[in-house]
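new request in #modeling-help
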Amino acid sequence: MLEVPVVRARGLSKVFGGGDSEVHALRDVSVDIEGRRLTAIMGPSGSGKSTLMHLLAGLDRPSAGAVLYDDVDITALDDRRLTALRRTEIGFVFQAFNLVPTLTVLENVLLPFELGGTKPSGEHREWILERAGDLGLTPLLGRRPHQLSGGQQQRVAIARALAIRPRLIFADEPTGNLDSRTGLEVLMMLESATREHDQAVVLVTHDPAAAAHADRVLFISDGIVVHDVGRTDAATLSDMVLELAGAR
Amino acid sequence: MIRLTVRELRVAPAQHVATLIVTTIGAIFATIVIEADRVLGSQSAAGGFLAHGFVRLLLDVLGSVFLFVAIFVSCIVIANTFGIVMAARSRRIALLRLLGAEGRALRRGVTLEGAIVGAAGGVLGTSIGLAVVAALVAVLTAQHTFAPAPSPLATPLLVAPTVIAVLSTAGAAWFGSRRVSAVTPLDAVGVGQEASLEEVRRRRRPWLVSGCLAVGAVLLVAGVVIGARSPFGLFVAAPGGALSFLGFVLGSGTFLPPVLHLVGRSFGRSVPAALSRGNAIRHPERSARSAISLVIGVTLVVMFAVAAACFGTQAGAVAATAGPQEAASDAAFVTLVLGVLGVLIGFSLAIAAVGLVNSLSLSVLQRRREIGLLRAVGMNRRQVRLMVLFESLQLTLAGSVCGIVLGVLYGWAAALTALSSDRHIGGYFLPTIPLPLVLSVVGLSAALAVLASLAPTRRANAVSPVVALAVE
């Protein structure tokens, strides 16, 4: 089954610094991120996986290359339009939960709408509340983030990302601050988002156990995509990581 | 967006305590100036108090200048406070930017926050100011200094402090929140970095700083020259002084670090001293923010003290050449002016202290991980305490040195402008520098440094090495 790509990267390069201290974080990377799939980006620290995510999400500008949403190259957009793009097309889930401490759970989930000065339609709002229910948030909607456990906070972040029905969700080490059982729950939720709500999810991680939940795994090393494999079990992924480490 | 603003105010009001205090102090001051002018007016109509026409004119001029200065200072301190609040909130701002908030919209929200806090401070300050004036009038009437003239306290003009507080706080909040636009969504991911000295230099729009300094200096000199003929020169000199001072404040990111470095060198070579020296220079913006409110306070204190000392010296000259009645009237006037000065000194010191405590706490808060690292590699609590204390001292001493130099200059200029037209003084004179005051300013700022470092030190020493090294 071939999915339509939701985001295409073409010849992406990113150079940090200049002169003697020049660092090539990415070298001429071209990938398609497909819809309704969980795509994992793996690689050791400093491999360029975070840089790739930042560029795909329009958080940073590449030194060369293009990031295409449909036929729009977002690297050419001004801040205003990038902001609107993030608000309407991209969901984020991070390691550090990233909730606004002064808002309740429900307000955090609806925050992207508030920021855009819009309100979800009645039907859309119900859909959001259903998703919050799926994530077990219904009894927590009136609470503040500091009254929640780490796993609960991360579920709020997932609900917020799902709420805008984005083109794709970026999850950057979403299990990094969680114990293994809670981390597993979070991964299953991201997985079910792709199955049940046709959501494209990009998971950035260095943990083979997390990447084993993905439909597709991209390995990045020294700024280049070195492997591009389908669903793979954790042990094999782990071997691939070790092999890469040896090769370095 | 308005909901976010209201929420911010309701859930975390503590971050605006400093701004509320400053606007309240400012409004108290404005109220007292307005009321004092009115009360003294009715007093001079009712009795023989302040019959000297020249003195009445000068009092009105000084009253407006004082008010102008107070508003100006409050604006700078509030803008700084908002800068600090925004720095503390930058992670959250970055998150909102990440989720698709526009920088402009966020800034509008912050400005609204400022306006609301300003309104609260304005009303509160006006009430307190009215109470103070009423009490003072009662006391002075009981002492027979004032004739028992009936004077209703309320006048339509009393809306002014609140209106000014709202406008200036909103404006200062808008200006102070300019870093909101500089926060990138990447900061939410933890990649963003604080600006280095070079970046600050490049960004600081040097033409704005040098333009303010140049135009301000020209106006100041012109005011002094006009002042040789009429005290109205103050209306030229005061904006000139304010403008040149604004130039200094805007350029503080480049002017202050060398002074900080110089002061830091005097603390010796111990590890805490070396570390604190590095800290103060490493984040020039943060250090300048911390020191500038003190510079403002000390400049004002010294300026008015030098001006008053000049008044005192020159009053002697008046007494020698003019008749005793005129001299006595002038002496009463000088006493009055000194009283007003004392009040203003109190206000500006209070404003400066609020600013300093605020920014030192933040400095420690932002360096939690670094302090944890130092503790982990073997720095003991005493050394941490010394490090924070040295940093605090460095800021206050550098601030007071700059303030003293600027204050003497401005005070001298003010005295020249206001007095040199008096026919009994005739011409220019050298500044009278009140040495005890200068020394006590240095002593007080050192004490303030110790006081301001207490809470941050406790917080720094509460940091466990393990917690600080963990990913946040």
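bot summary: The interface with chain A takes residues 1, 3-4, 7-8, 11-12, 92, 95-103, 105, 184-186, 188-191, 471-472 of chain B (CB under 8 Å).
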